[in-house]
Amino acid sequence: MRTRWSRGEPDVSVVIPVVERHGDLAQLYGEFAAELARLGLTAEFIFVVDEHLRGAVPALREIQALAEQPIDVVLLGGPFGESAALTTGFNRARAERIVTLASYFQVEPVGLGAALQALDEGADLVAGRRHPRIDSPFNRLQTRLFHGIVHQLTHTGFHDLSCGFKVMRRRVARELSLYGGLHRFIPLLALHRGFAVREIPLPQRREDCATRYFGTPTYVGRLLDILNVFFLTRFPRTPLRFFGLLGAGLFSLGFAIDLVAVLEKVFFATGLSDRAVLLLGVLLMVLGVQTLSLGLIGEIIIFTHARHVRDYRIAEVIRNPPRPDLAPVPQAPGLDDTGMGGALQAS
Amino acid sequence: MDVTIVVPLYNEEESVEVLYREVCAAAGRLERSWELLLVDDGSTDGTAGKLREICALDPRVRALRFRRNYGQTAALQAGFDHAEGKIVITLDGDLQNDPGDFGLLLDTLDQGYDVVSGWRRDRKDRLLSRRVPSVAANWLIGALTGVRIHDNGCTLKAYRAEVVKRARLYAEMHRFLTPMMSLSGSRWHEVAVNHRPRRFGRSKYGISRIWKVFLDLLTVKMLLGFTLRPAKWFAALAVPFLIGTLLAFAASVYIDLAVAPGHRYPLVFPAITLLFAFAFTHLLIVGLFSELVVRLGDFRPGETAIPSPSEGRP
Question: What is the pLDDT of residue A20?
Fold first, then answer.
């Protein structure tokens, strides 16, 4: 039994980014390793540690020494954040199925079996959702606000994007292309890429229930992340539709303000030189044209690189006789049965 | 392989078998080797199952199934990418195009064109919601791009594969494919083709797409000019701001002279002068920057221009 893993690839790769706070990693590892063993699956664990948490490494070395399965400990060379840590983990993963976990206690490991089964049933990515929530109303309010905004902007129905628990096929992980704050939107990005995504409820851990208040920069950062993902998924090839409408709107507003001011001067002899609102109008017009010009630059960038842009993703090539290298991919169940009917439309 | 026939399909469960039979009959009369490439653009009905049945029986037919709905541009692009024929014919999956027109398209293409576009002269669609907007859009496309073509929206077209494989296709470019290819050096021609009323299903388009078409058209127009001469066009965009600067400056000087010594001097016009000057400078800088962007990209005018079959041979 001991040598089973060393021969081939394991059944599951577990990627754990250690980038913010972390809990008792030995206990976390122990619980999930036990659950995987109970399911009869071989596994490898990949811990990716951000530089400023290098204090966690000795504990991980201890786990490594005691464990009977492969444990990878990767120390990043800088404070690169969760997206980089996940990408590093994905690149090292050898198994076809990848599990990602938060580095602290979020959910009970009991949902692992159900999540892996959903993958077998045709889903490409299964996102965990802490449900029912047992933490404070303030935490839940934050979650609801965040997802309310995400829902408004992207028309997707995810309930708990901040849950680190995800199970996905390796090709999903390889296609995500994460950076910056995008790791928070993995299910959404996978959906946009045309993968079948499901959300499953997992019991929340008691350790996850402390009321969390983040500083203003964090909240502002989250809002920017949402805007970013909205822009990237809705206007990936048509920046001028976004910047152009915004710019034209600003310009028209400024123009209207100045027109009113000038008309008042002509008909009611209101002195123009005393009116600060004239300045506001000019400012808006300038801002509008600048926004538009950036949209144009965006269009030019896409157009001059378009010969190599391929937006479509082929699920299957059907031909007679079927070629073995293009084996059919199992048909995924519809998204609607998970309440995520509003998949992103091609823009 | 001489001809690849590409058909984008989106929820055409009922049409696909009839389409297959019609294409087979029409292509069989061409006396050229051909293949049929069906592109399922993320259909949610039984289209994929029908495609499997057809492909299992007929080795001349291949099908691509998309992971989700990506739109017609992507479906056509996938078709071009996977086409093995020297000529690619595209047609709609809703049976409104007539495969009987293949021969006419191919004969015209052989006269030395890169693109032959179908023109649904006698269109069998609703007047107000489809035909009137279409006439307006085509007129606008012609006026703005200089490529005066009657029917940009007709999917029934024939292309020389080596040309269309190099076309820049993304977003919803399929509506401007002929003008775009023409402007990058391709020879095009238009022939009147048959158009039939819809038999199954319903149209996937409505009048709501008009504003999108209009925005895309403006984009295409600006894109072509700006990509060819970025600095020049950004400078042109900056000219109104130069005029604004000069006017506001004149107003400042006038007020300066008019205000009696010791009175308050209003700062609104000098501030406007600075703002306009700032916008003017900014646009010039953006123009210079976009020269760099174009230089780094791979677009060069005339890129799809290739010698026609007769010219190219010694």
Answer: 84
Query: Hey, what CATH topology would domain A8-234 get?
Result: Spore Coat Polysaccharide Biosynthesis Protein SpsA; Chain A (3.90.550)
Contact (CB<8Å) A299/B223: yes
* Residue pairs between chains A and B whose CB atoms are closer than 8 Å: 167
pLDDT of residue A337: 32
Are B174 and B243 found together in one domain?
no
Reply yes or no on whether the pLDDT at B311 is more than 70. no
Contact A318 B62 (CB under 8 A): yes
* Residue B235: CB atoms within 10 Å: 16
By the 8 A CB rule, do A336 and A198 touch?
no
Among B175, B199, B226, the domain boundary falls at B226
CA–CA–CA angle A190, B11, B69 (5° rounding): 20
Cis peptide bond N-terminal to A132, omega within 30: yes
Integer CA distances (angstroms), B181 to B106, B168, B194, B302, in order? 18, 8, 24, 9
Is A195–B272 a contact, with Cβ atoms under 8 angstroms apart?
no
- pTM listed for this prediction: 0.84
Residue A210's CB is within 10 A of a number of other CB atoms, namely 9
CB of B71 within 8 Å of any CB in chain A? Answer: yes
Which domain, by its residues, includes B241?
Answer: 229-296
Same domain, B235 and B219: no
Give mean pLDDT, residues B127-143: 84
Q: How far is B62 from chain A (nearest CA, A)?
A: 5
Greater confidence, B308 or A192? Answer: A192
Residues of B whose CB is below 8 A from A245: 215
Does the CB of B214 have a partner CB in chain A at under 8 Å? Answer: no
CA distance B165 to chain A (A): 9
User: CB-based contact (8 Å) between B58 and chain A?
Assistant: yes
Domain of B110, CATH number, reads 3.90.550.10
Q: Phi and psi for B65 in degrees, rounded to 5?
A: -115, 125
Distance CA B99, CA B19 (A): 9
Give the separation between CA A197 and CA A119, rounded to whole angstroms: 9
Q: What pLDDT score was predicted for residue A335?
A: 32
- Tell me A78's DSSP state: S
Strands B188-192 and B115-119: parallel
Query: How do the residues of chain A divide into helix, strand and coil, expressed in percent and rounded to 5?
Result: 55, 15, 35
Nearest-Å Rg of the Cα atoms of chain B is 26
Token pair recorded at residue B312: 């190219």
Contact B268 A237 (CB under 8 A): no
Final residue of a structural domain among B170, B197, B226 = B226
